[in-house]
Amino acid sequence: MRFAAIDIGSNAIRLLLCNVYNGKGTPVFKKAELIRVPIRLGEDAFLKGKILSEKADKLVKSLKAFKLLIDVFEATDYRACATSAMRDAKNNKEILEKIQQEAGLKVELIDGKTEADIIFSNRAEEFLDKNNSYLYIDIGGGSTELTLLSKNKIVASQSFNVGTIRMLHKQIDKDYWTEFKDWVKKTTEGHSPLIAIGSGGNINKLFNMTRKKQNRPVSYDKLKSLYELLESYTLEERIKILGLKPDRADVIIPASKILLSVMKNAGIQKMIVPQIGLSDGIVHQLYEKHKQKVEKFA
């Protein structure tokens, strides 16, 4: 089976094409292609209140290409979700109608809770120690989704408008930042040992820069040292010397600040990064939907 997922985020849009194999026991998910286009819808939505024509045109053109790739891939099903930037844009209905008409794609505008639920549906918790508690941290351009797990059950879940694009452009006021930190402290109190599960493009990049093997934990101290190293370089040096992409080199700093703040306020000393995100969660949900449909008519 083949499934396609489109994530229309605040910093970039992504298309994930994924093969799913039904072996013995659990299904095996194999990424065929992951395509990322850095459009930065958040710069329009958060600073100007709407998506301007230039970025809207780039978005539609990109999604036209995504639709062609989905057709060539012969996907069993697809789902396209738009998150924080599109939620904030006053002209979101107009943009979504334009996408439907010109690209032939139906896009869902999902709220923060739905976004957190989709990310959590990756089922990373199935491979974790049931004796520990975990805080799932997904940092995007417009929002951060936090999900507290204990004994493989969701204890609390919350979406905050704390994202890398918002922070980069100073769109998060002090009171909201305090509210964000207080929620982390209060919600995680009494859950120990507590380990972070990180997801999102910036967290994945930070993890790769530590050169740890996948699913091996990285410490808070290591991440803090990496942040201090990154901050010691100018934007141009992060691109030229460290080899970061231009659209990653600036937002990786606020992403690090958000991550370290969450870990510090939750008393977390280590994090694992399974390198999954919203698009992976969409694929998992599409598979479950298809499986239930097949079983219903079997």
Quick structural overview:
The protein is of the alpha/beta class and 298 residues long.
**Main sheet properties:** 6 strands, mixed
Number of strands: 11
Helix content: 40-55%
Rg of Cα set: 19 Å
Going across the major beta sheet, what is the strand order? 8-7-6-9-11-10
CATH-derived architecture of the largest domain: 2-Layer Sandwich
The name of the CATH superfamily of the largest domain reads Exopolyphosphatase. Domain 2
N- to C-terminal distance = 17 Å
Number of domains: 2
User: Strand percentage, roughly?
Assistant: 15-25%
- Mean pLDDT across the residues is 93
Low-confidence stretches at least 5 residues in length (pLDDT < 50)? none
Q: Which structural class matches the secondary elements?
A: alpha/beta
**How many H/I helices?**
13
* Structural shape: globular
Describe the protein's architecture and organization.
It is a single chain. With 298 residues, this protein is of the alpha/beta class. Helix content is 48%, strand content 23%. It has helices spanning 41-48, 53-73, 84-88, 92-103, 112-120, 164-168, 174-188, 201-210, 220-232, 235-240, 246-249, 252-266, 278-296; strands at 2-8, 13-21, 28-37, 77-82, 107-109, 133-139, 144-150, 153-160, 194-199, 218-219, 270-272. Helix 2 (53-73) crosses helix 4 and helix 5 (112-120) packs across helix 13. The protein is globular and about 45 Å long. It starts with a strand and ends with a helix.
Please name the defining characteristics of this protein.
298 residues; alpha/beta; Nucleotidyltransferase, domain 5; 2 domains; five-stranded mixed β-sheet; globular
